[in-house]
C-alpha cells in the first residue's frame, strides 16, 4: 500500500460517523439514504464519486479508521481460504493498532495522532497515478 502514500485530497466534516454510517459506506454502491433528509448522500451517488480520483480512500471518525478497497486489490488477505476484503474498519484505540503505522502516518500531519478519539470525520483520497491506475 506504499504506492498510496503520495498526494491526496483531504475532506473534513465536524460530525462523527454513526454505526449506520459506517455500515452504509462499507457496503459501497447500495444507497439507502434517499429517504433520510439529514444525510448528505441522499441526492445521488454520494461517496462513490470519490472513485473518480482514487481506488483506496480512507477516513478517520471517532475511534475508527476505515479503508475502502472495492476492487479488493490492496488490503491484506484475510481468512481461509485467503481473500482480500473490500473494506475494513479498525478501532485504533486497541492495543495492537501500532502495526498500521504507514497507512496512518499521513493523518498525523492534520492533528490526528490516534492517541484519542477524533472529533469529526476526516477523509483521505490518495490521488490515482499512472502506477496505481493500472
UniProtKB/TrEMBL annotation:
InterPro entries: HATPase_C_sf, SACS/Nov_dom, Sacsin_chaperone_reg. GO terms for molecular function: Hsp70 protein binding. This is Sacsin/Nov domain-containing protein. Residues 3-129 form the Sacsin/Nov domain. It comes from Rhizophagus irregularis. Pfam families: SACS.
Amino acid at each position: 500500500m506504499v504506492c498510496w502514500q503520495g498526494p491526496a485530497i483531504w475532506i473534513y466534516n465536524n460530525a462523527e460517523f454513526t454505526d449506520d454510517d459506517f455500515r452504509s459506506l462499507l457496503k459501497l454502491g447500495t444507497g439507502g439514504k434517499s429517504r433520510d433528509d439529514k444525510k448528505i448522500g441522499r441526492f445521488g451517488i454520494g461517496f462513490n464519486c470519490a472513485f473518480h480520483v482514487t481506488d483506496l480512500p480512507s477516513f478517520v471518525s471517532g475511534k475508527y479508521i476505515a479503508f475502502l478497497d472495492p476492487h479488493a486489490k490492496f488490503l491484506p488477505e484475510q481468512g481461509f481460504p485467503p481473500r482480500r476484503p473490500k473494506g475494513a474498519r479498525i478501532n485504533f484505540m486497541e492495543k495492537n493498532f501500532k502495526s498500521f503505522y504507514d497507512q496512518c502516518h499521513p493523518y498525523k500531519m492534520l492533528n490526528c495522532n490516534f492517541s484519542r478519539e477524533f472529533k469529526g470525520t476526516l477523509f483521505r483520497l490518495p490521488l490515482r497515478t499512472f502506477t496505481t491506475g493500472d
